[in-house]
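One-letter codes give the sequence; the fold follows as tokens. An example follows:
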Amino acid sequence: MLNSINHIALTVADPERTALLFETLFASKAICRVDEDGHDETFINLGNTWFVLVKASVERQRTGDHIAFHVTKATLLAIAEKLRAMNLEFMLARSDSSLYFFDYDNHVFELDTVDLGNELSHGGR
């Protein structure tokens, strides 16, 4: 049986730049290391899940695929202000209860104020 997500790997052009984005938005600290095979690795913990930022040249189309984090309304609004100040694209949705933003490599992230587990246990939206 599955326990939890161990990590999520994202292919990015510049792991340091992507890590800095997450550090700025979420006050998360990146950990950089070289593995036993000599590969540079960049890790960052977001929402109690480790993300490994893997350097590679990939052109990615934006799709509906995304990673969503549950946040408070205050956090959502604070992140919206940070994104606005950084001049990064984002959009508010569902009566401003969620926010979608994009990293530099077109990965899509959602911040959602709705507790999905609670919502589903009561029959959905």
In short: The CA atoms of residues 46 and 62 lie 21 Å apart. The mean pLDDT is 93. The helical segments are 15-26, 73-85, 116-121. Strands lie at 7-12, 31-34, 40-46, 49-55, 67-70, 90-93, 98-102, 108-112.
